[in-house]
Design goal:
The structure is a single chain. This protein is mainly α and 350 residues long. 73% of the residues lie in helices and 0% in strands. The protein contains 15 helices and no strands. The radius of gyration is 21 Å and the shape is globular.
Length: 350
């Protein structure tokens, strides 16, 4: 049994770990889904099913942030010091590793031959965002800068006012998936009720105002609804791709109704389950504890694994994805754990 997590937070601990695993599975299986009509159909379907199943991972991270942070009434200085600094220092460390590794590879391949080219390589990497998955870090930094303001609003609002925001956010998100979004000034009308911030508010709202699911019947209905959304995503992606004879990933988007509904179902199901014992609980706690460092470092690990020809397609994807995911999670978590044990390591490991 894991004793260092409060009982009321165990479900969030489990949910964060599952979301971390989901992101890694997404990045491993993602390249396969672009190979529609290129790889064998059974291979593509494995990638499609895995991708469909884990598309809620990023929204779940955002909902967890809303659940944990929006109720806190920290003053501005305390909030920024506690939250923003804890993001920026590990991010800077792993960004530096990415830049150095990229430069080393370019030198080895003969693409960089002198100091001037080295400086240009470093500048290009930084301007280009350093790593493709770091878009989430830039986004969360922006959200965290805004959270002290939105937090004060939400703590002084009643359920009706928060629900008003969420209804507008959901409506805008759904409309953005239709032909209406092509209207010239649509983005100007909907700008303030769109984007990832809605998931943060949604996490706060569901935890504060919805009762914990206790009946087996409700859990079963949520599970069936979740399954329906995942099946719809997978089959819908196949149909759209078949029609265009090319990979179409429209239904993978975070603001599609299928992904949004699936995200809410996963959140509510985990919220009603506070499993405290067993080996799986120990593993999930370990992954959750080092989840930020795992996220920051896992693409580096996947890159190294790809050099060793270990990816989703080095063998049948059922095995390839499983092996790559296990190795990536194990190695990433192990690296972060070791760094965390070094002097000052806990401040940079994530």
């Amino acid at each position: 049994m894991v004793n260092n997590v409060k009982d009321e937070l165990i479900w969030i601990d489990n949910l964060r770990a599952i979301a971390t695993i989901g992101v890694i599975l997404l990045h491993i299986s993602g390249p396969l889904t672009y190979q529609f009509g290129v790889v064998p159909s059974s291979w593509w379907w494995v990638g499609n099913i895995v991708n469909s199943a884990v598309r809620s991972s990023v929204p779940i991270f955002l909902m967890i942030s809303g659940t944990l942070l929006l109720p806190k009434n920290d003053d501005l200085k305390t909030f920024l010091k506690k939250r923003l600094v804890r993001i920026l220092i590990p991010f800077s460390f792993w960004a530096f590793i990415h830049v150095v590794m990229n430069l080393a590879l370019k030198i080895k391949e003969g693409e960089v031959k002198n100091l001037n080219e080295s400086l240009n390589c470093i500048a290009d990497k930084i301007i280009g965002g350093i790593a493709f998955h770091y878009w989430y870090i830039y986004m969360i930094i922006g959200i965290y800068l805004f959270l002290p303001i939105i937090g004060k609003w939400i703590r002084n609002s009643d359920e009706k006012e928060i629900r008003y925001f969420l209804v507008l956010w959901v409506t805008v998100s759904l409309l953005s998936q239709t032909v209406i979004s092509k209207f010239l000034y649509f983005s100007q009308i909907t700008y303030y009720f769109s984007g990832s911030l809605g998931f943060v508010v949604l996490g706060y709202y569901l935890d504060k105002y919805l009762p914990i699911v206790k009946s087996k019947r409700t859990s079963l209905l949520l599970s069936l609804l979740l399954t329906t959304m995942l099946v719809f995503t997978a089959i819908g992606t196949f149909v759209l791709s078949k029609q265009s004879n090319n990979a179409v990933q429209t239904l993978y988007a975070y603001f599609t109704p299928n992904v949004m509904v699936a995200t809410v179902c996963i959140y509510l199901l985990f919220r009603s389950n506070t499993q405290k014992n067993g080996i799986s609980r120990v593993v999930l706690h370990f992954i959750s504890k080092y989840s930020y460092g795992i996220y920051l470092s896992h693409i580096l690990v996947l890159t190294i694994l790809s050099f060793a020809k270990i990816d989703s397609m080095f063998i049948h994807p059922i095995i390839g994805i499983s092996v790559a995911a296990f190795l990536c999670i194990s190695i990433s978590a192990g690296i972060v754990y070791v760094i965390n044990k070094l002097p000052l390591g806990k401040h940079i490991s994530g």
